[in-house]
Amino acid sequence: MVELLSRTLPTISISIVSHLQGRLLNALLLDLDKFSRSYPLEILLTLNLPETLPFSPDDFSCPVNVYTNPAPLGFAANHNRAFARSSGGFFCVMNPDIRIEADPFRALLDCLSDAAIGVAAPLVLGEDGAMEDSARHFPTPLKILCKAFGGCKGSDYSIADQVILPDWVGGMFMLFRREVYEQLGGFDQRYFLYYEDVDLCARLRLLGYEVALCPAAQVVHHAHRSSHRNLKYLRLHLASMLRFFMSRPFLKICWQKWLRPA
């Protein structure tokens, strides 16, 4: 049955970008290797900074193609370049700090069998097993202010067993049909870091697609939250937030969701 699956399922191309995260990468690639017999995977690993990896690409069953950037690029540019090099019928964006214990791909591919869904994401758990808020309503300046002053806490959506259709899902793990990512033109490279996932989901919705979180697929996220501790990343976060709030996709979403007369 496993051999039949690997012959009939299209390849999943997985783009991972490392920022001196070799130890995390090794653990993730070992996780992914467990599923390479069931799914024909290809890994596109981008080293955004020069690093010596604690493994060889030949250590794994699936092809691991390593690219080293001459100069660091942003989240969007790195994944768009990986997409251009990829060959799979599905394209997956994945952070190196993700760990995978059980197969997430079957449930995600089931979600994407619905042509109305443009991107599928798994339920993301923290290291302590608690659910992360990886599925949210679109941010607004009012909601950001509310959070800054200690309000608007808690999850935006109630997660159970059924697929939910949130406004947007976090970019730590996103799976697309190839033609959808191509139709979007990928991530907007004017965002260097942060809000690329929000913008992309907004543009998906404006094209008439749904965003899906599939609780049957689960992964663990070893998040670092750099913008909470580092002034440089905090500035990047704020700059991306302002860019989104002044963007055409956000203004169109505002009109459709909140301002258009009934």
Overview of the structural elements:
This protein has 262 residues and is α/β, with parallel strands linked by helices. The chain has a single domain, classed as Spore Coat Polysaccharide Biosynthesis Protein SpsA, Chain A (Alpha-Beta Complex). The chain has nine helices and ten strands. The protein has helices spanning 2-8, 22-33, 75-85, 105-112, 141-148, 178-184, 196-206, 231-245, 248-259, and strands at residues 12-18, 41-47, 64-68, 90-94, 98-99, 117-125, 135-136, 168-169, 173-177, 210-221. It has an eight-stranded mixed sheet, sandwiched between helices. A two-stranded antiparallel sheet has the order 7-8. The longest helix is centred in the last third of the chain and has 15 residues, at 231-245. The relative contact order is 0.15. Residues 1-8 have low confidence and may be disordered.
Throw out a few tags for this protein.
about 260 residues, alpha/beta, Spore Coat Polysaccharide Biosynthesis Protein SpsA, Chain A, two-stranded antiparallel ribbon
Q: Name the CATH homologous superfamily.
A: Spore Coat Polysaccharide Biosynthesis Protein SpsA, Chain A
General form: globular
In total, the number of domains comes to 1
Which runs of at least 5 residues are low in confidence (pLDDT < 50)?
Answer: 1-8
Describe the biggest sheet?
Answer: 8 strands, mixed
**For the residues shown, what is the average pLDDT?**
90
The helix tally amounts to 9
Distance between the termini: 52 Å
Looking at the overall shape, the CATH architecture is Alpha-Beta Complex
CATH class label? Alpha Beta
Share of helix, binned:
25-40%
**Oligomeric category:** single chain
Which structural class do you get from the secondary structure elements?
alpha/beta
